[in-house]
Design goal:
Strand order of the largest sheet: 2-1-3-7-11
Helix content: 25-40%
Structural class: alpha/beta
Mean pLDDT: 94
CATH superfamily of the largest domain: NADH:ubiquinone oxidoreductase-like, 20kDa subunit
Order of helices and strands: EHHEHEEEEHEHEEEEHHHHEEHH
CATH class of the largest domain: Alpha Beta
Low-confidence stretches: none
CATH topology of the largest domain: Rossmann fold
Amino acid sequence: MNVLWLQSGGCGGCTMSMLCAETPDLLGMLADADIHFLWHPSLSEESGSEAVSVLDRCVSGELPLDVLCVEGSLLRGPNGTGRFHMLAGTGTPMIEWVSKLAARARHTVAVGTCAAFGGVTSGGLNPTDACGLQYEGATPGGLLGADFRSGSGLPVINVAGCPTHPDWVIESLMALSMGEMGAEALDEVGRPRFYADHLVHHGCSRNEFYEFKASAEKPSDMGCMMEHMGCKGTQAHADCNLRPWNGNGSCTSGGYPCISCTEPGFEEPGHPFAETPKVSGIPIGLPTDMPKAWFVALAALSKSATPKRVRVNATSDHTVIAPANRKTGLK
């Protein structure tokens, strides 16, 4: 499976993430899955005219292109010309290259939230007119248009995340290589369901504190960060706490609230990332699928039943009270 990887308007963080995949030989592992990089700006030896020649051969159809991966948002400015981002040495805007290559590719993959939905690059006044491949935030459209379908008949596959988990990229490519990613494998905004059908909340190490609504009050605290510190783990679609990053960590286990970086529009929440907006003391962002009345009732009951151990530890940076050592009576 021939893969061509382009970097557009972004920081390159998704490539950096992929290089941290838990394997001693990333390219060897991909090769074993019959995945071959025609060109990657950070991993390939070809540069200059050699790299441009690869792109030209893909556009002409001389070189079969199975997967076009785009990292970073697409910069359409100024005034739709795309000249804010020219592919060096070609005199052609990156958006033109992407459009031509997407028309040839069997599959088109947006690597990261910038390429998927516009992401951080499209935030604020968006002077570069940045957008995703097939979305502007949560609105279908983007560079390629809502009706775009790749050669396989699929829309853009949005491997969203800021950055993406290395496994999400690798497993998506492997699924494509084995012919196991059809329309049913994507959610309503084009994300692979193998990770997007989970919530960051699943597997969070702070779940006991969440159950009792024992909340952290400052960054070093051990408690749940939803009530005061802006955590959106109960709303964000990703399996970060089920497949730890680099085999060990996640945002919440590292003490930072989930900012829902796999979601369209995460870059402009309308409030500081580490603060929870509230109305009458009730957080605005409630857990997915939970009616407000139920949450309020559950929170009140949970707080009234919070064990002293959980309540005290929630606002400490270490375990102050250990769990009681009692016999269970089980044989």
